[in-house]
């Protein structure tokens, strides 16, 4: 009979199979914390220019994937601005007593909300699919589906078919709404995080500007191609985006959460420059990701939607949801009907679309303006709060312009259009752009996708409500409030100012681990920026050492 193996042999084989002794785990954990601390310090000292030089590929891949949002911005622009488009109204609308054609308010609301319903479905799918299959495969599957759904728009013979197209296309749009932000926040360091997440809003503006430009160019056409061409142009996006995403690196944070540490390092190296002039160390950065993931495991026991409403994550979920809902509550829904609203206020078709083009151009310029303000040292909370105060003031003025006498109606309409341009600039300098940075930073890494999904869903639910109300406010066959709708939105905007002051914290310059500790300690939103925390004094489970064994080759 063979003799049993000696203890030394057993220990040797155990280590070869990946089992660590308590001492091994302790030593490896110490190395991990030391490396994570070094990486965190380097990130926080990194300047914007250093970040761009070190992570140029991350910038490029993030910009590519964020471009998926252009498609949604384009179609949402078509929906709102086709309501003032005569050829489209003749095809899908009903004749009014004065001989003109209008799509009834009930169908305007249905078309707006059809896309939102689809987006809610897509958001919920994304919360499960992207965490299971990864960001890249989820986006590619959605691009394939979208290519087929666009055909319904192009061939629609009635408003019911348009509604079906809005719902179906809304599903992949819902995925893009959150996945693009999450990817941008996870592939770049702190120095670039707010710029790349805010770029998503630039993509919205780009899609809207292209959409309004296409519609304006079709005003002289009288046939069905006046509206079929704008619908058909949606096909120009999916194929090139699919090919780009096919070769994109997966998020290293997602790979770390899946325990694929070596793949995470390979992905990280694909995101950084080959000519590194900094003291960048990929192993240290991976250690920081592993440590943050372990810290969040300690704070957050699970990774389900229900966990978003437990403990400290409840507060984070509430803030993310409200920060996004405030976009609609502060008057954004009102501005989406700019051409239709301006026509009801007294402007002709050409001028109303020219103002709308100016508004969407402001949307894009405002993103760069927000970048500039943030680079000068203004925090996200400060920009968000000051922006809401500016929006409130302009909405009040817009309401008072409704008192202009009928004889001065055209001048009042021009003043209203000019004010809407100023409103759009204020919105994009603050609430419209900074929101994307806030929602990507405030949620935990483990629950980020699900938290952002919940936030965007509240945005969509509020959008459904405002999408029902706004057509009735502006439609001459319904409430016909015209400028007086400004008073309604000003009241909601004032409530948003109060909420932001007391509840929205300042995440500027904080690592994800630091934000975790600040929320765990229940620090007041007004004291977030001034409170000092020491992340690496916090204990984490030593079992994390099993997933990290020092430098990875």
Helix share of residues?
Answer: over 70%
CATH class: Mainly Alpha
SS summary, helix count: 25
CATH architecture: Up-down Bundle
Give the overall pLDDT as a whole number: 81
Count of separate structural domains? 1
Q: Give the overall shape.
A: globular
Main pleated sheet: 2 strands, antiparallel
Describe the protein's architecture and organization.
With about 550 residues, this protein is an all-alpha fold. The chain has one domain (about 45-530): MFS general substrate transporter like domains (Growth Hormone, Chain: A). The protein is about 75% helix and about 0% strand. The protein is built from 25 helices and two strands. The protein has helices at about 5-15, 20-45, 50-55, 55-65, 70-80, 85-90, 105-135, 135-155, 160-185, 190-215, 225-230, 240-245, 250-255, 260-270, 280-300, 310-335, 340-345, 350-375, 380-400, 410-430, 430-440, 450-475, 485-505, 510-520, 545, and strands at about 95, 100. It has a two-stranded antiparallel sheet. It starts with 6 loop residues before the first helix and ends in a 6-residue tail after the last helix.
Keywords, separated by commas or semicolons:
single chain; 553 residues; mainly alpha; Growth Hormone, Chain: A; two-stranded antiparallel ribbon; globular; disordered N terminus
Topology:
Blueprint (H helix, E strand, L loop, with lengths): L6 H10 L5 H24 L2 H7 L1 H11 L1 H15 L3 H7 L1 E2 L5 E2 L2 H29 L1 H21 L3 H28 L3 H28 L7 H8 L5 H9 L5 H6 L3 H11 L10 H18 L11 H25 L2 H8 L3 H27 L4 H21 L8 H21 L1 H12 L5 H27 L10 H19 L8 H9 L23 H4 L6
Antiparallel strand pairs: 1-2
């Amino acid at each position: 009979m063979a003799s049993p193996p000696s203890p030394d042999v057993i220990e040797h084989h155990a280590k070869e199979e990946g089992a660590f002794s308590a001492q091994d785990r302790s030593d490896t954990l110490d190395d991990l914390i030391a490396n994570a601390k070094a990486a965190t310090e380097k990130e926080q000292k990194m300047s914007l220019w250093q970040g761009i030089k070190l992570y140029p590929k991350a910038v490029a891949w993030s910009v590519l994937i964020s471009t998926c949002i252009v498609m949604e911005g384009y179609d949402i622009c078509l929906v709102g601005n086709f309501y003032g488009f005569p050829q489209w109204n003749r095809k899908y609308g009903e004749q009014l007593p004065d001989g003109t054609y209008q799509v009834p308010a009930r169908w305007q609301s249905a078309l707006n909300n059809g896309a939102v319903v689809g987006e809610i479905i897509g958001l919920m799918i994304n919360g499960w699919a992207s965490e299971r299959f990864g960001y890249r495969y989820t986006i590619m599957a959605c691009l394939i589906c979208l290519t087929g759904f666009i055909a319904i728009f192009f061939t629609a013979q009635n408003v019911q078919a348009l509604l079906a197209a809005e719902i179906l296309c809304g599903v992949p749009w819902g995925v893009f709404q959150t996945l693009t932000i999450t990817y941008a926040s996870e592939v770049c360091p702190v120095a670039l995080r707010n710029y790349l997440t805010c770029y998503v809003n630039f993509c919205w503006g780009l899609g809207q500007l292209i959409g309004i430009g296409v519609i304006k160019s079709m005003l002289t056409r009288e046939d069905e191609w006046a509206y079929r061409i704008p619908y058909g142009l949606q096909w120009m996006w999916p194929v090139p985006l699919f090919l780009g995403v096919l070769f994109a690196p997966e998020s290293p944070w997602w790979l770390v959460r899946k325990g694929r540490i070596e793949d995470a390092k390979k992905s990280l190296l694909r995101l950084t420059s080959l000519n590194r002039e900094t003291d960048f160390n990929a192993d240290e950065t991976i250690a920081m990701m592993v440590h943050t993931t372990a810290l969040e495991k300690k704070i957050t026991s699970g990774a389900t939607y229900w966990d978003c409403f437990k403990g400290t994550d409840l507060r984070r979920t509430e803030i993310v949801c409200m920060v996004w809902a405030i976009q609609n509550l502060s008057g954004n829904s009102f501005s989406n009907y700019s051409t239709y609203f301006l026509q009801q206020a007294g402007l002709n078709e050409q001028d109303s679309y020219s103002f709308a083009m100016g508004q969407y151009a402001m949307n894009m310029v405002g993103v760069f303006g927000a970048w500039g303000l943030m680079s000068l040292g203004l925090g996200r909370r400060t920009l968000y709060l000051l922006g809401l105060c500016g929006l409130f003031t302009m909405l009040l003025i817009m309401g008072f312009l409704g008192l202009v006498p009928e004889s001065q109606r055209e001048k009042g309409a021009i003043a209203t259009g000019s004010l809407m341009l100023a409103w759009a600039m204020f919105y994009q300098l603050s609430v419209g752009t900074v929101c994307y940075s806030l929602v990507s930073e405030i949620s935990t890494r483990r629950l980020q996708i699900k938290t952002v999904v919940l936030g965007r869903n509240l945005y969509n639910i509020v959008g459904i409500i405002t999408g029902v109300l706004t057509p009735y406010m502006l439609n001459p066959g319904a409430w016909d409030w015209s400028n007086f709708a400004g008073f309604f939105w000003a009241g909601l905007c004032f409530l948003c100012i109060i909420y932001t002051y007391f509840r929205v914290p300042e995440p500027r310059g904080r690592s994800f681990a630091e934000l975790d500790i600040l929320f765990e300690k229940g620090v007041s939103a007004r004291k977030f920026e001034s409170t000092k925390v020491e992340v690496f004094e916090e204990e984490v489970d030593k079992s994390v050492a099993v997933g990290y064994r020092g430098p990875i080759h």
